[in-house]
Amino acid sequence: MAGRAASHTDATLGIEQSGRWSVLMLGGDWIAATATAADAALVRALSGKLEKGFPPDFAVGDTASEIAIDISGVGQLDITGAWLIHRTRTELEECSLGTRLSGASAEHRQLIDRVAEAEHPPPEPAPRENWGVTVLARIGRGMIGVGQELRDLTGFFGLLLTVALRTLINPARLRRTATVHHMEQVGLNAVPIVMLMSFLVGVVLAFQGAQQLQAFGAEIYTVNLVALSVMREIGVLMTAILVAGRSGSAFTAEIGSMKLREEVDAMLTLGLDPMETLVLPRVVALVLMLPVLTFLADIAGLLGGILMAWGALDVSPGLFLVRLQTTTDIRHFWLGMAKAPVFAVVIAMVGCRLGLNVSGSAESLGRLTTRSVVVSIFLVIILDALFSVLFSSMGI
């Protein structure tokens, strides 16, 4: 034991004043064997400095606000001593005292830095997610969102039915002026764009169909292709998609703006039902006008097919109409028209419901307006597919 005691020098601690710095002078060996005495000296010094100034036996005033730790006189240094030095710096910095380490050899500084890193290790990098798991998680969240959307839409449809039945019992409750106004907005004002779009679709169908059928010498069947496509599917589907982007988003923006201006809350305060005041007139207007727009779209689509067949196939308009009358069953027209009221209810419900869901920010209004278009078009396409399967299974 005596041999081991003589192998080290006791740790020393002193204070010097150097301008605005108080210099904490460390000397001797700062190792485990001297740690007890060194720790006691540091505690006394730091307690005096942090609370009242260094004790008188260190002969330093209380005005220094920055402290340098000079370890140039340190001989041996192990982990225990390095931790004491690091702890001293940390406690001084926590008390808003500037510190710096001076006189450290490369080995001593490296050891002190390693102790500091061990006490405050750098954050571990976030684990990389498996891309397959990420994709499946996003699909799962999307499916949950679709389920919640359908659930909320079903509840809204039930509430709308209640209001509609109440209005049907007492027709005077229907806001006729508002209904006519919305009929003009969603119907009359949409006629030019709907007819232009359907006309161009009819032209494209006739042109592409004629090119493919000419290879088999069956270009006369272009009439059947255009008639069935336009009257049964394309006319009502394209009209519903256009109305969803034009009128459905307008419903969301109008009602959402009223929510932002607290007009809906004012209606509730006055005893007015927003479903009866805002939603029902828009639904009735769209249900009445979408079949009319679909009919006009069918006419425009057939007109586009007639002109393209006349120009590309030399099929006169009279021959086209005769072929149309003799080969196309009128039920195809009525099947397309039967979809229009269903699409209208879905588009109006989605637009009005999302408008009522707008919260108190412009960001919410823009987000839900965009969502209204996406959800409406998605549901229209899904319903059209279901109608196709249903009609096919019924043999019509």
Which features does this protein show?
396 residues; elongated; Transcription Regulator spoIIAA; 9% strand; alpha/beta
How do the helices and strands line up, and which of them pair or pack?
Layout: H1 2-5, E1 12-18, E2 21-30, H2 35-52, E3 66-77, H3 79-94, E4 98-102, H4 106-119, H5 131-169, H6 176-186, H7 191-214, H8 222-260, H9 263-269, H10 274-313, H11 317-327, H12 331-356, H13 362-393
Parallel strand pairs: 2-3, 3-4
Antiparallel strand pairs: 1-2
Helix content: over 70%
Largest sheet: 4 strands, mixed
Mean pLDDT: 83
Classification by helices and strands: alpha/beta
Kindly report the spatial arrangement of strands forming the biggest sheet. Answer: 1-2-3-4
Summarize the helix and strand pattern as letters: HEEHEHEHHHHHHHHHH
Tally of DSSP helical segments? 13
Oligomeric state, counting identical vs distinct chains = single chain
Strand segment count: 4
- Overall shape: elongated
- For the termini, the CA-CA separation is 106 Å
Low-pLDDT stretches: 1-6, 50-64
Tell me the β content: 5-15%
Radius of gyration: 41 Å
Overall number of domains? 2
